Amino acid sequence: MKQCLAGLTRAELREWAAANGEAAFRGSQIADWMYRRFQPDPDEMNNLPAGTRRKLTEAFHAPCVQMLQSDCAADGTEKLLVELTDGEAVEMVLIPGGDDEEKQRLTFCLSTQVGCPVGCLFCASGRNGLIRNLKAGEMVGQFLLGCRRAGRRPDNLVFMGIGEGLFNFEELSKALQILSGQEEFAMSPRRITVSTSGFVPGMQKFAALEKEFTLAISLHAADDETRSKIIPDKLRYPIAEIMDAADLYLEKAGRMVTFEYTLLEGINDRQEDAAKLAKLAIAHHAKVNLIPYNSTGGEFRRPAKEVIRHFRDILHNAGAHVTIRQERGAKSSAACGQLRLRSKAMPALTGKG
Ligand code: SAH
Ligand code: SF4
Asked: What is the CATH number of the domain that holds 49?
């Protein structure tokens, strides 16, 4: 199977050039097109001889992703439907503003899989299970597409689109290597967040990288019984094991984790849930990010504003560091968890967002 050009490191590009009868500097030229000018299409690399461009096109999928559709919300959030070479599609989101509007921050939210094997009941991404893992080059390809679209690099990168990235660890870690590598995109690892549903074997490998990538854990419940109402058994790990893996990450990466907590009315929004969550957060040096549920057409409801505020206050008063996620892009259906609803892969739902 053809590889994606965007999945290669600078050293691998040089090796490819050498192995294919090209001068070593050709590898560096190709690398500069990708890492500096965000251009993965050999036809556009106009300082390469036609023969080199042809060899690249024959050897690689380049580019390996392309934009099918874009959908912009009033707040500037833009969702892109991204087509892969086999006709599957994922989504990515370009989010302006971030945590400080003044600084014009830009965040990209990227996908790691087509579908998701976890299947959380409130999330649209896993409704049809896992279709396939993305290749590293398809993740880097989304990054390149975003950079070209925005005309610049993002300040932050979050792997919070479709899929459970830590279930696709090898390809995700290769993408992380390219995105943060000094010879490649050189993004600060602290500005790259991987979000996981608490997939413990992946968390352990992530901790073992001993890099300062940021880790977010989608906890959604402070006890296993409540959690079992939201996340199917198949890939759900006991909270105690998730906490052990979070502690390991803190030790190896030296970074605090964030607990993401999607608030669902009548399921996990009780005062006692907030109190238990505060205890866990404090014991494991975690920040808490409350995410008001975005409707995906199921039976779940978002709690009332006062309930959300009260939930936050309980955590805050207990001494936990807590924020409420600002809603972005709801009008374009780009908000979390709605990402697959309108994709071509789910035609039955098209237009419902
Ligand atoms: N699979 C990973 C990353 C992708 S999901 C994970 O679960 O962490 C990214 C975030 O979106 C998760 O915290 C998830 O709980 C949240 N999310 C999914 N569907 C949502 C919805 N309908 N409303 C609000 N948040 C949602
Ligand atoms: Fe998968 Fe994350 Fe959605 Fe759960 S919330 S189904 S883990 S993408």
From this structure: 1.10.150.530
* Reduced 3-state DSSP string for the chain: CCEEHHHCCHHHHHHHHHHCCCCHHHHHHHHHHHHCCCCCCHHHCCCCCHHHHHHHHHHEECCCEEEEEEEECCCCCEEEEEEECCCCEEEEEEEEECCCHHHCEEEEECCCEEECCCCCCCCCCCCCCEEEECCHHHHHHHHHHHHHHHCCCCCEEEECCCCCHHHHHHHHHHHHHHHHCCCCCCCCHHHEEEEECCCHHHHHHHHHCCCCCEEEEECCCCCHHHHHCCCCHHHCCCHHHHHHHHHHHHHHHCCCCEEEEEECCCCCCCHHHHHHHHHHHHHCCCEEEEEECCCCCCCCCCCCHHHHHHHHHHHHHCCCEEEECCCCCHHHCCCCCCCCCCCCCCHHHCCCC
37 and 166 share one domain: no
- 336 is an active site residue: yes
Q: What's the confidence (pLDDT) of residue 351? A: 27
Reported pTM: 0.93
Closest residue to atom 8 of ligand 1, CA basis = 196
Q: What is the CATH number of the domain that holds 237?
A: 3.20.20.70
Ligand 2 contacts (CB < 6 A) are 116, 118-120, 123, 125-126, 163-164, 197, 218
Task: Answer yes or no: do 43 and 124 share one domain.
Answer: no
- Choice from 108, 160, 289, 342 to test ligand 1 binding pocket (greatest atom count within 8 A of CB): 160
Which parts of the chain have pLDDT scores under 70? 98-103, 328-353
**What residue numbers bound the domain in which 229 lies?**
64-343
Which residue's C-alpha comes closest to atom 17 of ligand 1? 337
Asked if the structure places residue 348 within a domain, the reply is no
Question: What pLDDT shows up at residue 281?
Answer: 98
Q: What is the pLDDT of residues 39-61, one digit of tens each?
A: 999 999 999 999 999 999 999 99
Nearest CA to ligand 1 atom 13: 218
